[in-house]
Each structure stands twice: as C-alpha cells, then as structure tokens.
Amino acid sequence: MTNVSPGRLLVVDDNKVNRLLLGRSLEQQGHTVEMAENGRQALEMMHARPFDLVLLDIEMPEMDGYQVLEKVTTDLQLRDIPIIITSALEELNSVVKCIEMGAEDYLVKPVNPVLLKARIGASLEKKRLRDQQRELIRKFATSEVATDLETSGFSLGGKFVEATAMFSDIRSFTTIAESQTPAETIELLNTYYTLMFEAISDQGGVVNQMVGDGLMAIFGAPLVQADHCERAVKAALDMIGMIQLLNVDRLAQGKTEIRIGIGIASGQVIAGYTGTTRRATYTCVGDTVNLAARLESHTKVVGKPILIDGATQSTLSSAIKVDSEGPFQLKGKTVEVQVFSVPLDQKK
Amino acid sequence: MNPQSVIDLPTFEALRDAMGADYIDELVQAYFDETPQLLAKLQQALAAKDCDAFRQAAHSIKSTSNSFGALDFGALAKELEIMGREAKLDGAPEKVKSLVTGYETIHQALAELCND
User: Fold this and answer.
1) N or C: which end of chain B has fewer CB within 10 A?
2) What is the percentage of chain A residues whose pLDDT exceeds 70?
3) A239 by DSSP, 3-state: which?
4) What percentage of chain B reaches a pLDDT higher than 90?
5) Between A334 and A82, where is the model more confident?
6) How many CB atoms sit inside 10 A of residue A134's CB?
7) In chain B, which residues touch A (CB < 8 A)?
8) What are phi and psi of B48, to 5 degrees?
C-alpha cells in the first residue's frame, strides 16, 4: 500500500470508546486527529480551522450526521472537505442516504485498521488532487471567474447580464515595436498588461481578452456590481494615470512615450464560458461589446483617450465629469450614438 | 471467573495488539465510564417508552461491547436495539435486566484481562 502524507482529521462520534478507537488508529497512521462529540461541535471546529477529512457518525445527540452533511455540503467554505461515514453494519440504508447527500465513503464499525488506512489514504489523495485543480484554476483564471466556476459549477451556457465593456489599445504600437528590440517590446507589453490588470482588478473588473497590444475587460459580470459603469470609468482614469507614470520612466530611459485609447459602453451583454469543455474562457459578446470596441477606435478620431457611450454616462455619479462630444455615426451602427469623453484632470 | 466465558479472546487481543497495551487500559476505562450511563439511559427510555432513545442507547452499548469482544453481551444489546427500532418493547424489561446484570460480569472480565 502506498503511503499517503498525513492529514488533519476530525473524528465525530458521541461515543467516547468509538472516538478513542478511531482516533488511536488514525494517530498510529501518522495523522493529526481532533475529536468532536456531536455535530454542532464538529461544525464549530470545522469553521475554526481547516481539516483534510472528517469521519462522521450518523446517530448523535444535538445534531446528527445527516444534519452535519446537509450543512457542510451547502457551505462553500466546507463543502470540499471529504466526509467518511462511520456506521454499524445494520445502518446500511442510512449509509446509502449519506452517500446520496454527498458523503465520500463509509466505514463499518468496529473499524478494521487496514481498511481504515486504505479508505483514508484514497480520500486524502483525492482531496489533494482537487486542491491542486482548484489552485490551477486560480492561477489561470481571474479570481472572479474562479469563484464563479466554484459556486455555479462549470457550464458553457450563456446568459444576459447588464454590464460595462471596455476596450483598450496602445496607439501606434507597430511604430513603437519597430523602433526597439523584440525583447524590449515583450517587456513593454508585460509592463503594460501588469499595470492595466492592476487598474482593472482594483475596480472589480475582469480582463477576459488580450490580443497583441489590446485588451478587453468587463465590469459587472460574472460578479454582479450595481455601479459597473462608474467602476469602468474609474479604472480607465487609473489606467491612463499609470501610463503617464510609465512614460516618466520611459522618457528618462530615452524611450518613446506610449499612449492608449479606451472605449467604454454599457448595456445588455451575453456572458458565458465559450470554447469547449477542454479549454474555455469567460467572455461577453453583443452590441454593447461591439460599441465599446468602436469607441476605442474612435478615440483616434476625437483625439481624446477615454470615450464612453450615453448609457455609461447616464449612470455616473456627479464625482465624475464628462464632456459631450456630440452624436457620432459610428462604423457599423445605423443610428447615431451619443459620445462623451472623460477628461483626465477631474479636479477642474 | 474465566474471562473467556464472556469475552472473545481473539477479538480482545487483536484490539490490544492494534491499540497498544497502554492504550487498551484507557479504552477499557472509557468503556467503564460510558456503559453504566448508557444502561441508565436504556432503563429510563424503557420506563418512558421512548423507543428512539431506547434504540440509540442499545445501539451504542452494542457497538462498543463488540469492539472489546463482549460478543454475547453485544448480541443481547442488538436484540434490544431491534426492539426499539420496531417499537416493540413488550419483551424488553426482562432483557434489559439481563443486560444490566450481564454488565457486572463483563466489567470484571475486562478488568482481569487488563491486569494480565
């Protein structure tokens, strides 16, 4: 039998002899063991500190095994802790019910030490793999998307949500790239993305696309935010502020300044995971998203770095000042769109 | 008294080997602490005709007694557990009495085995 790394285990049983029996066997196998006399106590302990596995008796006073399972499986903080039911042989019907409720496995009392070791080992190993997967999701998805995946499960289906879309792009990037080494270009892009990510995440936005020197971010999805318009505009101002700081550095090094354009539009978008079950990304599509992309491109025409649409402007608080740029006929739009620019100096 | 008459020695010895000679004393002590309380609960439940509490107490006695090799004693507790589950406590008073007196013998036998 393979050796598994020791875990922190919780033994829940109202019977002291059973607790001592199980606890001793587990300690002999190298695990750290804590004990609870009933379900209520067990839940308190599980909330107070992390456990890798719980061995749970069904029949207990105050709060029985079913009630514990129900609480644990609906608790985001606890639901990933594997639970092994310990039961007497005649309780097989109850065991089935527990497995259906989400218990990972069961052991018949009195517990056979070899079987105990095998079951605990398998459960701990599975938990370790699940923890690793979660860690990977956290690394490759934004925390909002990871949280959304963990709470709602993985579903490729989309839904309509009210959100704000943002596009940002480096002006004349090709010219800049031609004037420096490839390594410098990649370094510039990495610095740029680091700064933009920070500004966007600080306002609760999610960057969901990076293509070359452009990026798309979404505010208000997957996590609902009532003030997604305001957050997007604040993020845009922070982004420009960060680029200005970066330029101070670049000028000191004798490099060309960079400038970015940002387009923001709000309204209904279709949000969801697109791709295949093997590789998917959280994204938003729809007219609102297209409009944001057009506004970003329109910043070159207007000569102002941040442009927003009327829907975004109408929900902004008085703390943010905007200038009307009048109606514009944007490419691909049949009706004219009210466009506003956001001046960088908001103190005016 | 010969402890083997009430305790299945292979079961007890397997437990002692698995737990360690020091730890078995602690376990037996826990059993001595808990079982009289469970017997009292069983009697109270019988008097109150509380079938569920009766079943639970019998269940606990059965499961721990079997661990130590008190198999006949455990089997008697199991009969009571079933009576409780089926809510038929008619023949229960006699059996509860046997269980209470039987515990004296179990206590003595386990104490002897621990002093070995």
Assistant:
1) C
2) 88
3) helix
4) 73
5) A82
6) 14
7) 18-20, 23, 26-27, 30-31, 33-34, 56, 59-60, 62-64, 66-67, 78, 81
8) -85, 0
The distance of A64 to chain B (nearest Cα, Å) reads 12
Name A25's Cβ contacts closer than 8 Å, sequence gap at least 6. Answer: A111, A113, A116, B18, B19
Note the Cα A236 to chain centre separation in Å. Answer: 21
Whole-angstrom distance, CA of residue A343 vs CA of residue B17: 81
Helix (H, G, I), strand (E, B) or coil at A339: strand
- DSSP character at residue A257: P
Q: Nearest 5°: CA angle at A39, between A68 and B76?
A: 105
Residues of chain A with C-beta less than 8 angstroms from the C-beta of B56? 59
Q: Which single residue is written with the structure tokens 């069904």?
A: A58
Q: Tokens 């007219």 map to which residue?
A: A287
pLDDT at A9 over 90: yes
Cβ burial of A212 (10 Å; 0-12, 13-18, 19+) is exposed
Please list the residues that pair with A267 across neighbouring strands. Answer: A163
- Rounded to an integer, the average pLDDT of B81-91 is 92
pLDDT in tens, A187-202: 888 889 888 988 998 8
SS3 A217: strand
| H-run or E-run covering A114 | helix A113-140
CA distance A88 to B58: 12
Sign of the CA dihedral with A58 first, then A108, A90, and B57 last: negative
Which of B39, B52, B55, B60 to mutate to test binding with chain A, by most A CBs within 10 Å of its CB?
B60
Mutation for testing the B interface, residue in A18, A21, A112 having most B CBs under 10 Å: A21
User: Per-residue confidence at A137, pLDDT binned at 50, 70, 90?
Assistant: low
Instruction: Map residue B88 onto helix, strand or coil.
Output: coil
Residues belonging to chain A with any Cβ–Cβ distance to chain B shorter than 8 Å: 14-18, 20-21, 24-25, 59, 88, 90, 109-110, 113
Please state, rounded to an integer, the average pLDDT across all residues of chain A.
85
Query: Which chain A residues touch B81 with a CB distance below 8 Å?
Result: 90
Query: Tokens at residue A3, please?
Result: 């050796």
Which strand ranges, in their side-by-side order, compose the sheet holding A8-12? A32-36, A8-12, A53-57, A83-88, A105-109
In chain A, which residue's Cα lies nearest the Cα of B20? A24
Closest chain B residue to A27, measured at CA = B19
CB atoms within 10 A of CB A152: 10
